[in-house]
Request: fold
Amino acid sequence: AQSVTQPDIHITVSEGASLELRCNYSYGATPYLFWYVQSPGQGLQLLLKYFSGDTLVQGIKGFEAEFKRSQSSFNLRKPSVHWSDAAEYFCAVGDPGGGADGLTFGKGTHLIIQP
Amino acid sequence: EADIYQTPRYLVIGTGKKITLECSQTMGHDKMYWYQQDPGMELHLIHYSYGVNSTEKGDLSSESTVSRIRTEHFPLTLESARPSHTSQYLCASSEFRGTGGMKTQYFGPGTRLLVL
Reply:
């Protein structure tokens, strides 16, 4: 069974500083990989996704993520965070083989931005 | 911008009541999903649908039921609510996979359910 681990429950970063959120997955092959963000009272918004090809993926709001097959990781990065980036971030995997197309999510990382 | 709506946003209800959580989308998506999210935990797929008259159970067993009579609606029902049903329920939709691979899932804002 596939699983997703986000090792950091909370991360605190100063505004303007760089950010890296970690995500590791367990899956037999290379899954589809996603990062979603959830602001308070809002639904999940897709930041970026990786299906194949270039392992560095650009997303919205200045985010990027790098797929590293050897480490089974898909870490999310941003060079300079803004106060509006404070939210919950979820890494998720999907099955390239089809089926239900349900996503398997990590438990999320809560990002706090210090002024 | 995704157009997927959920009502109510918050619901506090007593044990034994029947409840229906509404989900609707205006994107014409064939596939729809229900996820359950306990506080501090990951989302788990509890139901999904390929289209009208299609309903399937997800990875996490749930006492809830769903129906898909219209493309745009995918309501979730609990016949007799219990405190163990207290959770957040998120609805999502996507285009059908087809030959292009997995499609992006768009999520609604969720319904926070508290059963006393």
User: Anything to note?
Assistant: Residues 7 and 22 of chain B are 5 Å apart (CA to CA).
